[in-house]
Amino acid sequence: MPKISTSGTHSTKIYYYEQGEGQPVVLIHGWPLSHRMWESQITALSEAGYRVIAYDRRGFGESGRPAGGYDYDTFADDLNELMIQLDLKDAALAGFSMGGGEVARYIGRYGTERVSRAMLLGAVPPFLLKTDDNPDGVDKSVFDGMLEGVKKDRVAFLQQFFPNFYNLDAASARDSDLIAFSKWIAWAASGLATQQCIVAFGMTDFRADLGKFDVPTLIVHGDSDKIVPIEVSGSRSREMIRGSKLEVIKGAPHGFAATHPQQLNALMLDFLRS
Fold this sequence. Notes:
Layout: E1 3-5, E2 13-19, E3 23-28, H1 39-47, E4 50-55, H2 72-85, E5 91-96, H3 99-110, E6 115-121, H4 140-166, H5 173-187, H6 191-203, H7 207-210, E7 217-222, H8 234-240, E8 245-249, H9 256-259, H10 261-273
């Protein structure tokens, strides 16, 4: 099982899955999933001639479950360790949902020496939390409610979370299968990591990080996203990242990597080839 070791406080092992050869594309999953959410993208990108590396964030999937380090500075440090230990150069970084925060904070902390392109897919930047200088953000009570729900009964919380994640009818057979698959992935995560990541993606300000982007950047968002509304995320990231391109998938929910895979795969490949 391929893993890299991180250093510093709360060091751990980070699992990664690798497929294909060519220019590296690093896929960073969303909360509360793992690298398994990228199955369609891994197939499409590797068959198109790219070396795809999809890793599990600390506390999720097959990675280690340390007692701490569930903050974006540490997540960026973990990604940096992966980039160095696998000697990745000219890499494209693609982050979905909270994974977009890793892309942003990595570039903010480490620059783009090893990075040639960036993709923010249904991503949480620039800043979700409503504050005096971010009046269009999300009320803190929303994140407090999520944290309370996960602490009280994580399984029950996920039961009601994923239908909104995909905008699906849990009574439908196909929809029920996708929701069940997602819950199976999420159930395997560390309870502590699941809790603390809510604080991380809900409270972290990435606005300064976005100002350091100096590589071509693709932003993809669904206009029916109920989890990370496009108005407070994708649209604003487009305004803050010089030269970035925003692609809106009509009718797509938050989890469009699974519900609209062909459209997402085409957008990613067009961007990588451009």
